[in-house]
């Protein structure tokens, strides 16, 4: 009977992971797509100033993203983990108290970090004075986003992902709307200064954050009575003093700072080495180096974040679930959670990355026009593959946090970072624009490999199950890549007499044809081969197969 209960609970946890990942993935994907689509009109309105505008936008945002993670201090993920921990012990009151204490802490830290960012901007501008007003405008967002993020962490501790996903999307809608309106007015109506327009585009982060926080507040008020009933019916056996709660939040959050900032730290290394190394080893002018930086760090970086957000969404869902099974000392369940999460990661990340690599040419022209189109398409195609290592790092580092081994994960991240730093300049010398991407991939592979080795020693990861799923997923993903590439090639050939395939409309048509055909191929492949069963379960997969009339 006990085994049946454990099996049922394991199935429920897997369903919770899938449902949570669905919400977070949907919210994250829509937000990322919206965050990429805005670039089409934005680049048109900036005209010949676009690459310079994008370069200072990215430089300001990279520093902002790192400082924002410090301002948030890893508290959202730490809160989600600890709330899930106390909820599993039926001590809901402590989880609520933890959230309230964390909220006051995040408000204080947000104000301090915003002030530091604002006044230190002249020292962080990378010898480009145009970056300073961009950083000043971003400082405002740092004040409010920590409080918004900790509220998301509270919801995630209950495995309630809908508020986070919807607020994330609402935040992005308002942010993009403000960006486009101000960019159009300044650049097209007033014919104003392009740096001022970029500064207003980055100030949009604050405007969007206010909207996102308002949505979370509405959800919290709707669920207030539910949380209150859980607190009333708790065990009330544990007493945790306020100072101990603060200590618990800070102790849990510090490793989250470093691991959560992993991608941003690597991007900062790129930002503060790329310009100097390229000037030293090449004859490119400052404008040319700026353009190349904008191509890989800005243009390609925005698009690959769409696929990386898939794994990040999974990672957010994994933390509280792993914490729950780890708190119960259920080694078998912890092992299964790790295995399921890795398969789910591959299921969505591999076809997404290979698919983007295949349509890199028309996709790049769709978003960024025909400027530097050959190098830009090659960079995007290559970066799409490297993005797999970014996503893997996101999910395995989240797993280590879920099993309370943050310090070990941080140590492994430092090893990966050291590898990147050592290789960075030599790889820029020999591989140019591709150098920083290669070193990032190597750094994340080293870190992820060390983490997986550690987890395997402790829990015995079911590599046989993962390998069996991986072989099938990889085969289907390669099929997606080949089919998308062939579709792009044929579309370019046969649509050329009918439309301008180098224009945005033509590129959109080519991209959509390739995506639809490749997407349908992947769906058929994973259901026909039963790969979908690993993720959706037998019952749901059988039901979908029947509806799609795919014979098992």
Automatic annotation (TrEMBL):
Q: Which InterPro entries match?
A: PG_synth_SpoVB, Poly_Biosynth_Transport, Polysacc_synth
Q: Name one Pfam family in it.
A: Polysacc_synt
Keyword annotations for this protein?
Cell membrane, Membrane, Transmembrane, Transmembrane helix
In the UniProt record, the signal sequence range is none
Which CDD domains does this UniProt record tie to the protein?
A: MATE_SpoVB_like
Annotated membrane topology: Multi-pass membrane protein
Q: What is this protein called?
A: Polysaccharide biosynthesis protein
Localization, per the record, is:
Cell membrane
Primary localization class, coarse: membrane
Instruction: Name a GO CC annotation attached to this entry.
Output: plasma membrane
The transmembrane residues are: 21-41, 61-80, 101-119, 131-155, 176-197, 203-221, 249-269, 303-322, 342-363, 375-397, 409-428, 434-452, 473-495, 507-527
Species this protein is from? Acetilactobacillus jinshanensis
Highest taxon above the source species? Bacteria
């Amino acid at each position: 009977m006990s085994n049946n209960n454990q099996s049922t609970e394991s199935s429920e946890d897997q369903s919770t992971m899938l449902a949570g990942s669905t919400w977070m993935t949907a919210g994250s994907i829509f937000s990322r797509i919206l965050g990429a689509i805005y670039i089409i009109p934005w680049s048109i309105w900036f005209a010949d100033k676009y690459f310079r505008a994008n370069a200072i936008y990215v430089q300001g945002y990279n520093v902002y993203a790192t400082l924002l993670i410090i301002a948030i201090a890893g508290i959202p993920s730490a809160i989600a983990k600890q709330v899930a921990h106390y909820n599993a012990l039926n001590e809901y009151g402590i989880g609520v108290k933890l959230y309230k204490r964390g909220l006051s802490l995040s408000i204080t830290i947000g104000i301090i970090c915003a002030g530091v960012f604002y006044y230190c901007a002249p020292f962080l501008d990378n010898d480009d004075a145009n970056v300073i007003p961009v950083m000043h405008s971003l400082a405002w967002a740092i004040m409010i986003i920590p409080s918004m993020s900790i509220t998301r962490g509270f919801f995630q501790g209950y495995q309630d992902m809908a508020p986070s996903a919807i607020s994330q999307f609402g935040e992005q809608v308002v942010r993009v709307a403000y960006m486009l309106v101000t960019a159009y007015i300044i650049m097209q109506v007033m014919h104003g200064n392009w740096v001022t327009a970029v500064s207003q585009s980055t100030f949009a982060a604050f405007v969007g954050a206010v909207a996102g926080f308002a949505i979370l507040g509405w959800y919290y008020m709707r669920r207030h009575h539910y949380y209150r009933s859980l607190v009333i019916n708790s065990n009330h056996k544990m007493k945790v003093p306020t100072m101990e709660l603060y200590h618990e939040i800070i102790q849990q959050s510090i490793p989250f700072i470093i691991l959560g900032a992993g991608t941003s730290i690597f991007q900062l290394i790129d930002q503060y080495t790329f310009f100097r190394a390229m000037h030293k080893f090449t004859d490119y002018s400052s404008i040319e180096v700026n353009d190349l930086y904008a191509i890989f760090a800005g243009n390609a970086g925005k698009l690959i974040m769409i696929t990386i957000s898939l794994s990040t969404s999974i990672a957010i869902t994994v933390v509280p679930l792993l914490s729950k099974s780890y708190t119960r000392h259920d080694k078998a369940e912890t092992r299964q959670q790790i295995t399921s999460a890795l398969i789910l990661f591959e299921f969505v990340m591999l076809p997404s990355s290979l698919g983007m690599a295949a349509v890199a040419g028309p996709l790049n022209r769709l978003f960024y026009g025909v400027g530097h189109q050959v190098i830009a398409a090659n960079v995007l195609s290559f970066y799409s593959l490297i993005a797999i290592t970014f996503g893997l790092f996101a999910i395995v580092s989240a797993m280590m946090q879920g099993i309370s081994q943050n310090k070990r994960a941080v140590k492994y991240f430092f090893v990966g970072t050291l590898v990147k730093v050592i290789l960075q300049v030599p790889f820029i010398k020999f591989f140019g624009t591709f150098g920083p991407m290669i070193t990032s991939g190597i750094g994340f592979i080293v870190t992820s490999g060390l983490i997986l080795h550690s987890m395997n020693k402790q829990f015995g990861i079911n590599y046989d199950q993962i390998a069996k799923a991986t072989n099938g997923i990889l085969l289907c993903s390669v099929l997606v890549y080949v089919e998308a590439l062939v579709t792009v090639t044929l579309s370019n050939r046969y649509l050329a007499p009918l439309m301008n395939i180098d224009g945005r409309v033509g590129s959109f048509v080519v991209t959509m044809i390739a995506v639809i055909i490749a997407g349908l191929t992947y769906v058929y492949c994973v259901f026909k081969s039963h790969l979908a069963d690993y993720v959706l379960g037998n019952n749901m997969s059988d039901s979908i197969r029947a509806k799609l009339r795919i014979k098992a």
